[in-house]
């Protein structure tokens, strides 16, 4: 999850209150974020340079590192954090973000050329008028762009943000895609004029920008934004032009976001303008920009249309497990910046019409609304209770009963890997290659190449690794094997198997045979004569993993469900086991 570093004193000033570290940690926990670390600017610099720790007396301002949810883009800057915490604490109302009501003829216009569809087809824009920057606000404005670039923008591959001093440029603007040799401008923080292809070579040695070059470097055309005088605003997603660079003196900010994903572009633009419109002369008002495409279609951004969601009260209280009155739920939603109006359906069910503001792009489903109610109510205040128990699956219940029975017979349960090597289910068991096994694609190790088709390799490996353990060794496992099955939609099927192994000075064949009888007795199955399908019986088997004449198949109601016998000496040698062993494996699901 993203970690946001903010100055403690400036944050407390924005919150209008001071806290000690424990009190602020508790406030963060209640809001659903986490105070991850408390440090200082100089301590961070020393850590980055791998310098030794010094005294803390002159380390400057205390820095809070706050961990926020990855989808809460409105919390990636101090302004958003402070606003959210003040609303949560009941100090501020939910702000109403407005788009200035001006005619489309009076709006700034961004004209999009057809060629941009080859590389970055979308652009959205907005204007912040009458902004007042100081050094801290300016740095926060730049930091938010960087955090959005790293987060939702996916390192500028999906969206790239450009910010410009509107007073240095003149609309209408054009968004074009041109061959690199035709683009010339002075990039940000440079004084020399560069051609776009020269600029790519120049930035290959730049630690910050070189990681973005691959996005457009091999394209025959590069995206570029011009004003009406053919002044370059930016070469997205790489660098802005020096001519329109913003500074502490900037009053009017033009923001453009070029993108390959229009939805994310809207989220990014809305986040930028809602967070910093607080510094506008007319707070929370944003001037729109008309974007006109080459096919004649035009759109006005930012899009502040409110998304309304119908959420039943019973759904909210059912999820969080607390019965709450309607007014209380509406109040809790307000703390999380969600306006909620009560409505009653025809069947008398109480519902809320929840208005999702442009800052809360993370609210997509009624479960998100229920989660916000739970956060505002307080997870620690939700009464602890045992959840209503679901009826266990018959197979799971049967598995637990069998575990108990076998454990009472003196066997110890083990848990082995469900993955194994190909040879462990074939040559090491004296078997041909198993074509019923699910193979792991691009396996990183020869030990984990297939999904096991038998529990036998795991138990033998366990004994091989514990051969110095006092004898006898009596172990068992109840677990799944996986077999290929073309009739299943995923091409394979899980089967629950039971396996037991005895290892000692003698083979212990009679003990394993006795265990078969005990398991069948526990299931209420009688031993019957061969051919009788009402119970179980045993018959001769020819399984190569066992000694000839010292093995048997278990037949249950006419079906083969398993095999037991003395393990073949060659198999024991493969697993480095010096003592004789007897082994049993049954398909438990056949007993249900």
From TrEMBL:
Reactions catalysed: tRNA(Phe) + L-phenylalanine + ATP = L-phenylalanyl-tRNA(Phe) + AMP + diphosphate + H(+)
One Pfam family this sequence matches: B5
UniProt keyword terms in alphabetical order: Aminoacyl-tRNA synthetase, ATP-binding, Cytoplasm, Ligase, Magnesium, Metal-binding, Nucleotide-binding, Protein biosynthesis
Domain B5: 304-384
Subcellular location: Cytoplasm
PROSITE patterns in the record: B5
CDD domains registered for this protein in UniProt: PheRS_beta_core (cd00769)
GO cellular component, one term: phenylalanine-tRNA ligase complex
Enzyme class: ligase
SMART domains membership: B3_4 (SM00873), B5 (SM00874)
Cofactor names: Mg(2+)
Gene Ontology MF term list: ATP binding; magnesium ion binding; phenylalanine-tRNA ligase activity; RNA binding
Assigned EC number: 6.1.1.20
One GO-annotated biological process of the protein: phenylalanyl-tRNA aminoacylation
Quaternary organization: Tetramer of two alpha and two beta subunits.
PANTHER family: PHENYLALANINE--TRNA LIGASE BETA SUBUNIT (PTHR10947:SF0), PHENYLALANYL-TRNA SYNTHETASE BETA CHAIN AND LEUCINE-RICH REPEAT-CONTAINING PROTEIN 47 (PTHR10947)
Family: Belongs to the phenylalanyl-tRNA synthetase beta subunit family. Type 2 subfamily.
Protein name per Swiss-Prot or TrEMBL: phenylalanine--tRNA ligase
């Amino acid at each position: 999850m993203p970690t946001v570093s903010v100055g403690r004193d400036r944050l407390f000033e924005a919150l209008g209150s001071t806290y000690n570290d424990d009190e602020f940690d508790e406030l963060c926990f209640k809001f659903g974020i986490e105070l991850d670390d408390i440090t200082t600017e100089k301590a961070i610099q020393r850590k980055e340079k791998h310098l030794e720790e010094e005294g803390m007396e002159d380390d400057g301002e205390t820095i809070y590192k706050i961990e926020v949810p990855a989808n809460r883009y409105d919390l990636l800057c101090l302004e958003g954090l402070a606003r959210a915490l003040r609303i949560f604490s009941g100090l501020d109302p939910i702000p109403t973000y407005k788009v200035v009501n001006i005619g489309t003829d009076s709006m700034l216009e961004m004209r999009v050329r057809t060629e941009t569809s080859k590389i970055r087809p979308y652009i959205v824009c907005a204007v912040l008028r009458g902004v007042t920057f100081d050094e801290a606000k300016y740095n926060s404005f730049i930091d938010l762009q960087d955090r959005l670039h790293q987060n939702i923008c996916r390192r500028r591959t999906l969206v790239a943000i450009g910010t410009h001093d509107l007073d240095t440029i003149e609309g209408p603007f054009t968004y074009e895609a041109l061959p690199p040799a035709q683009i010339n401008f002075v990039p940000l923080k440079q004084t020399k004029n560069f051609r776009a292809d020269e600029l790519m070579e120049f930035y290959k040695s730049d630690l910050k920008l070189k990681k973005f070059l691959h996005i457009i470097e091999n394209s025959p055309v590069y995206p570029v934004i011009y004003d009406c005088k053919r002044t370059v605003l930016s070469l997205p997603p790489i660098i802005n032009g020096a001519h329109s660079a913003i500074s502490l003196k900037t009053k009017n900010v033009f923001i453009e976001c070029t993108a390959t994903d229009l939805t994310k572009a809207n989220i990014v633009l809305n986040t930028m303008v809602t967070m910093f419109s607080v510094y506008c002369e007319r707070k929370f008002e944003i001037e729109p920009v008309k974007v006109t495409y080459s096919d004649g279609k035009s759109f006005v951004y930012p899009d502040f249309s409110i998304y309304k969601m119908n959420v039943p009260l019973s759904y909210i209280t059912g999820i969080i497990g607390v019965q709450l009155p309607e007014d209380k739920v509406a109040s809790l939603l307000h703390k999380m910046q969600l306006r909620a109006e009560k409505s009653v359906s025809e069947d008398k069910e109480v519902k809320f019409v929840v208005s999702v503001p442009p800052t809360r792009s993370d609210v997509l489903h009624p479960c998100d609304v229920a989660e916000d109610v739970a956060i505002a109510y307080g997870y620690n205040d939700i009464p602890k209770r045992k959840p209503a128990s679901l009826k266990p699956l018959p197979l799971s219940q049967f598995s637990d009963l069998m575990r108990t029975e076998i454990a009472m017979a003196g066997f110890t349960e083990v848990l082995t890997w469900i993955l194994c090597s190909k040879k462990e289910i074939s040559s090491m068991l004296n078997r041909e290659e198993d074509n019923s096994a699910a193979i792991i694609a691009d396996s990183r190790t020869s030990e984990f190449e297939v999904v096991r088709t038998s529990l036998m390799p795991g138990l033998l490996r366990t004994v091989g690794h514990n051969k110095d353990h006092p004898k006898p060794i009596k172990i068992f496992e109840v677990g799944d094997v996986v077999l290929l099955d073309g009739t299943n939609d995923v091409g394979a099927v899980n089967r629950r198997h039971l396996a037991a192994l005895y290892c000692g000075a003698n083979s212990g064949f009679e003990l394993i045979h006795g265990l078969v009888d005990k398991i069948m007795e526990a299931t209420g199955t009688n031993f019957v004569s061969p051919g009788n399908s009402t119970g179980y019986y045993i018959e001769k088997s020819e399984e190569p993993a066992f000694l000839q004449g010292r093995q048997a198949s278990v037949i249950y109601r006419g079906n083969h469900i398993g095999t037991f016998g003395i393990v073949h000496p060659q198999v024991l040698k493969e697993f480095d086991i010096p003592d004789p062993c007897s082994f049993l494996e049954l398909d438990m699901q056949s007993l249900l």
